[in-house]
Amino acid sequence: AGNSKSSKSTAVPPGPPMYLDLVYIPNHSNRKNVDVEFFKRVRSFYYVVSGNDSAAEEPSRAVLDYLLEGKAQWDSNMQVTLIPTHDSEVMREWYQETHEKQQDLNIMVLASSSTVVMQDESFPACKIEL
After folding, report:
1. Which GO terms describe its biological process (predicted)?
2. Quick one: pLDDT at residue 34?
3. Given the DSSP bridges, would you call strands 112-118 and 42-49 parallel, antiparallel or unpaired?
């Protein structure tokens, strides 16, 4: 009772891994709620990455890097598919800069950017194929 230790708080406490089919990365993939431990423990075939607010750093480049770091520590090389819900500069840069590492870790990103044009307006769209 008298032995209180100061420890770093993590989004997911250490423990055995959980295996899931589909995981939505919490809080628009903001690094305040997701860390490396999340990806060490929460192992999924598919991760949905949302977030389209660069001012709020969503999705966070750090979270995407945490996925790489966490998956590198898995004891298997199961394929992981990352599904972004929006096309973002952060996602495009991360994809290009870490593509080789993604391949080494058997991570695939399923999205392609496109633009929807409707009469007098156009807007970006993210096409997801499963």
Report:
1. axonogenesis; dendrite development; microtubule cytoskeleton organization; regulation of microtubule depolymerization
2. 87
3. unpaired
